[in-house]
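Cast an eye over my tokenised protein here and flag anything odd:

===
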Amino acid sequence: MLTTGIRQATTADAADILRIYAPYITDTCITFETEVPAVGEFAARIERLTENYPYLLYEIDNAAVGYAYASKHRERSAYRYSADVSVYIAPEYHGQGIGTALYTRLFELLSGRGIYTAFAGITLPNPKSIGLHKAFNFSEAGTFHNVGYKFGKWLDVMWMGKPLRAYDTPANEK
């Protein structure tokens, strides 16, 4: 019997997470990163993000097969109630509901932390990612045309957004 679970990632998971992420860097335009970072640099990223946002790891029999995280949407203070989200699944585990499970938990955590809106940037074309986000009721917010250049071509990024909670007055603004 396989054991599966979602837990908070730590810097000790950096090498496992990077194994999932590296092929997206080297073989796809899904991420605009062009060089695989060193494990130490990647661990530092995880440490920075987990100071304020959830960073989740999906494991099957103690092996990392997917992850999802949130990050600051923009620098200006008024954006503090929004977050960017990303999910990456090892290719051999696509279509098994892992992205759905990770996003479900991530959105619960973000809402509980006072985040009202989640945004996802999706390099086009990427029908699988668009489908996943639409399944979570993300809607298109806009497309940045020719915003990135990778593998000898200009790339568009569609931004999608999703409300995570009712747009009332945030607790610390009352």
The radius of gyration is 16 Å. The beta strands are 4-8, 55-60, 63-72, 82-89, 117-123, 139-150, 153-163.
